[in-house]
Design a protein that fits this description.
Layout lengths: L1 E5 L2 E7 L5 E6 L4 H10 L7 E6 L5 H13 L5 E2 L5 E4 L15 H14 L2 E5 L12 H7 L3 E5 L2 E5 L7 E3 L7 H9 L4 E5 L11 H11 L3 E4 L3 E5 L6 E3 L5 H10 L6 E3 L12 H7 L8
Parallel strand pairs: 3-4, 10-11, 14-15
Antiparallel strand pairs: 1-2, 4-6, 5-6, 7-9, 8-9, 11-13, 12-13
Helix pairs in contact: 1-2, 3-7, 5-7
Length: 289
């Protein structure tokens, strides 16, 4: 494959064909690199072997990739610990797939019910989903949140949140949600597994720390952990650094205050274009400037 770019920046031009072969990549940076290689590998002229250097984090995302490939007729030989993959030359075949609800987006609305609402039920959240962010239920459990689940939906209710210790190594997108939950908790909560969150759409550790401090919530951080001293957040103007998940998190936390202003609020369009209108439909007062 031949790739060219402007000093490492877009636009990037790629042309094949893929010849096949072996490649080693770090497993502790992003599962997206693994998924991208697995999706392309069946189209190579020769078999492809992908090996992880170190532990593969966010395994659920890779498992979802393998499951989707299987639905479209692709077989990948993967080791039990998902550190080695063998892919022979194959062809994708058409398939009919029903897209399930998105746990990542739903997490913000469910958290809103927990810290500032009454009760919210979200349908099409599958109990047997491979999505990493189904781990939201584990975070809720640790925080003593009132939540119930049936095979196809989840209901969360306003709760007296208890501080806890959770690990988001395999579900990093839940970090902003965990932050706003513990910001309203009794006591001090700790979120571990945050190292990779500094290289997301923004430095999410810094963005959440700055925003929480602006709202009167004290935080502390180390290389791989983030501590939040629960309290009563207050009015603030938040810069989400064009990061959709930061904007949604502080939009929800603002429900606990007199008012919060989110700059560049349209950045939620990356993953959840109807977020603000959905929040409004649940009773939140949302206005645009």
């Amino acid at each position: 494959v031949h790739c060219t770019s402007e000093h490492g920046y877009p636009p990037v031009h790629v042309r094949g064909p893929l010849k096949g072969g072996s490649v080693e990549i770090p497993g502790n940076v992003s599962s997206q690199y693994v998924s991208a290689l697995l999706l392309a590998a069946p189209l190579a002229d020769a078999p492809v072997k992908v090996s992880m250097v170190g532990r593969l984090e966010s395994k659920s995302y890779v498992q979802m990739t393998l499951d989707t490939q299987n639905r479209f007729g692709i077989h990948v030989d993967a080791s039990d610990d998902l550190t080695e993959f063998q892919v022979r030359t194959q062809s994708y075949r058409p398939a009919e797939v029903e897209i399930e609800g998105d746990w990542s987006s739903a997490a913000f609305l469910l958290a809103g019910a927990v810290i500032a609402g009454d009760k919210v039920n979200i349908r099409r959240l599958e109990k047997k989903s491979l999505q990493a962010d189904r781990c939201l239920l584990d975070i809720f459990k640790h925080a003593k949140v009132r939540v119930s689940q049936d095979p196809h939906s989840v209901t969360a209710q306003k709760s007296q949140v208890e501080a806890a210790e959770v690990d988001v190594s395999d579900c990093p997108d839940l970090f902003p949600v965990a932050c706003i939950i513990f910001a309203n908790a009794h006591g001090t909560g700790t979120i571990r597994g945050i190292r990779r969150l500094r290289i997301k759409e923004s430095n999410r550790v810094q963005a959440m720390s700055d925003g929480l401090k602006q709202m009167g919530i004290r935080t502390e951080e180390s290389e791989d952990s983030f501590t939040i001293h629960g309290g009563k957040p207050f009015k603030a103007v938040i810069n989400p650094h064009r990061d959709h998940r930061i904007a949604m998190a502080f939009g929800v936390l603002g429900l606990c205050t007199e008012e919060v202003t989110i700059l560049d609020a349209e950045c939620v369009g990356k993953s959840y274009p109807s977020f603000w209108s959905d929040l409004q439909s649940l009773g939140a007062k949302v206005t645009s400037a």
